[in-house]
Amino acid sequence: MARRVSAIDIGSNAIRMMIADIHPETKKIEVIKRYRAAVRLGHDVFMQGVITAESIEFAKATFHRYSQTNKEFNVPVCRAVATSACREAKNRDQFVKEIKKSSGIDIEIIDGTEEGRLIHLAVTRELELDNRKTMLIDVGGGSVEVTFSEGNKMIATKSFPMGTVRMLETLAKRNLNESHLNILMGEFLKDLGPHIYQNSDHDTVDFAIGTGGNLEALGKLKVQLLQKSPHTFLTLAELTEIIDRLRPVKIKDRIEKLNMRPDRADVIVPAAVLVQTIMRQSETEKILIPSVGLRDGLVYSMISNQR
């Protein structure tokens, strides 16, 4: 008999929820609903070090809706985790307490390693990785996780403080703009390079795997801008062409002409450049986009309580 659960991902750019049915006999999940609320906690934390009172109220309203949704869909078990922005917020304990008090939902603040493990869990259930060496790139608002696998076994993961919202705030602090992303990438390579060198013989990584909303958006842009399909993978050449076409387009026009949400339009180029940098550094020519992420991993973790 199917067991209904929900998973909530409190990220730096949004708070996402997924309701799914778990089928224990097959260890498969059936997604019932997905939700997303544009609560950009990273803007507060990466600029001020705390989650502002206004953002806490937005988050409380979001969690109230999610709590009501759990009741409407008869969800008995909900697992909620918070990542980069909450990890770094000086008032994270207050945030967790206020959410619990207003919605009844407990929040776990997880580290980058656990975040990488949960996303890897989702990917291994979605893709056949036997006898393949892969590099998983999860692009978030506050951090990017780069995970190496051999088959379904995770061999190394590292979280880097180089998420898309953090990149925007760093540029703003330095009075720089999108055209100066190469400066941030140069700094990022000092940490990224050793991680790739230690875990990858360049000619043995079969392909990369990309997760996160920005990767899914880039897959759609392949179809929209390049008139190529399918949207489920990108070559490095295609990614580079998308970046070249997006850079001259103003954020307003990305919203109006490319039908992007405002909180996607301003981070899509930083996300693309970040993925391009990692692929170039690892000499990887192709990235698969399976359209799963942390929420899916959370649900899979609740099969036989894999934690």
Any chance you could write out the topology, listing elements then pairs?
Elements: E1 3-10, E2 15-23, E3 28-37, H1 41-48, H2 53-72, E4 77-82, H3 84-88, H4 92-103, E5 107-109, H5 112-126, E6 133-139, E7 144-150, E8 153-160, H6 164-173, H7 181-199, E9 207-211, H8 213-226, E10 233-235, H9 236-246, H10 251-257, H11 262-265, H12 268-282, E11 286-288, H13 294-301
Parallel strand pairs: 1-4, 4-5, 6-9, 9-11
Antiparallel strand pairs: 1-2, 2-3, 6-7, 7-8, 10-11
Summary keywords:
single chain; 307 residues; alpha/beta; Nucleotidyltransferase, domain 5; 2 domains; five-stranded mixed sheet; pyrophosphatase activity
Overall mean pLDDT stands at 94
CATH topology assignment of the largest domain: Nucleotidyltransferase, domain 5
Tell me the name of the CATH homologous superfamily of the largest domain: Exopolyphosphatase. Domain 2
Fraction of helical residues: 40-55%
**Biggest sheet: strands, sense, closure?**
6 strands, mixed
Strand content: 15-25%
CATH top level label of the largest domain: Alpha Beta
Number of domains: 2
Q: Rg to the nearest angstrom?
A: 19 Å
